[in-house]
């Protein structure tokens, strides 16, 4: 049996609740399929309060020794500003481990009613995860004064754009063979026109995949009006971030939106986390929906080569929601949903 070493970073708020649920499911799915060990790291806003940083100086090096990282959620704005907590944990991990492909599936689970009339859509959003608008290049001068200036520069490299678009095409090739590249090249004449050009170049290597190019504003409308027409979407870091919250909303809510931060070259561990945040308002109340986290666990198993286990976990999600469990916010506790998932797998 293959052995997997998993790093857990439950983080803040409901991150802890959903990580616990995902671990229970991991324990169950492993039986007879694989062996694993976990090590849990308390890196979070609480950790920051004591140590003045989100993770130790050698945190990245510590994580490097694992096969995968499972992350709950980070952020507790009451004590640590979001920009500090995100730039101290989540974003450095994505960049340091070159997790350039952020895979976010959006499709409604059986029995889950989203806000749209349309159902039967199945969108895979591929978000660039290491550069673009989140490159971190910029600065502020004359801070707090009337002549203050703030600059934040998006950085798009040929290598970075090409590899994410190629990754998107590969996903489309393995699915319904349609890719929509999302930009705003009518207004952003340098970076986004460049992105469009690279899309056309990479497209030549995938003759079976049909390609559309859409602007982000039109895509926002399309995801509401006709999501069933979409297959794979590829977008920059910020655009992908925005569209995947929209994707979460149309699939029934953030409680269902999973995410995989993948290093496709496997030169460093990949990280799996639900799209939702730490949700301070419902933290510790045992009412967070663990389904997004468990779906992310299924993505992790797939990445680790446990396709059958991944399918078993995903099947449990479908079984539970088809029975009406976990479909509506607040209708079931985290424990009840977790128990339903476990019994769907036994
Ligand atoms: C996400 C989150 C993060 C992001 C935040 C917390 C920095 O919104 O994973 O979608 O924008 O990447
Ligand atoms: Mn987001």
Structural summary, described in words:
With 346 residues, this protein is an alpha/beta fold. Helix content is 40%, strand content 21%. The chain contains twelve helices and twelve strands. The strands form two sheets. The chain has a ten-stranded mixed sheet, with helices on both faces. A hairpin with a 7-residue loop joins strand 6 and strand 7. Helix 1 runs parallel beside helix 12 (334-344), helix 6 crosses helix 7 (191-203) and helix 8 runs parallel beside helix 9 (237-250). The chain starts with a strand and ends with a helix. Manganese (II) ion binds at residues 241, 245, 275. Manganese (II) ion binds next to helix 9.
Give me the count of strands: 12
Radius of gyration, in Å, reads: 20 Å
Ligands in the model, by name, code or SMILES, are: 3-isopropylmalic acid, manganese (II) ion
Class inferred from helices and paired strands: alpha/beta
Average pLDDT, all residues = 97
Measured between the Cα atoms of the first and last residue, the distance is 20 Å
Number of helices: 12
Spans of at least 5 consecutive residues whose pLDDT stays below 50 are: none
What is the helix fraction of residues, given as a range? 25-40%
**Could you tell me the strand content as a percent range?**
15-25%
Shape descriptor = globular
Biggest sheet details:
10 strands, mixed
Q: Could you give the order of the helices and strands?
A: EHEHHEHHEEEEHEHEHEHEEHHH
Spatial strand sequence of the major β-sheet:
2-1-3-12-11-4-5-10-8-9
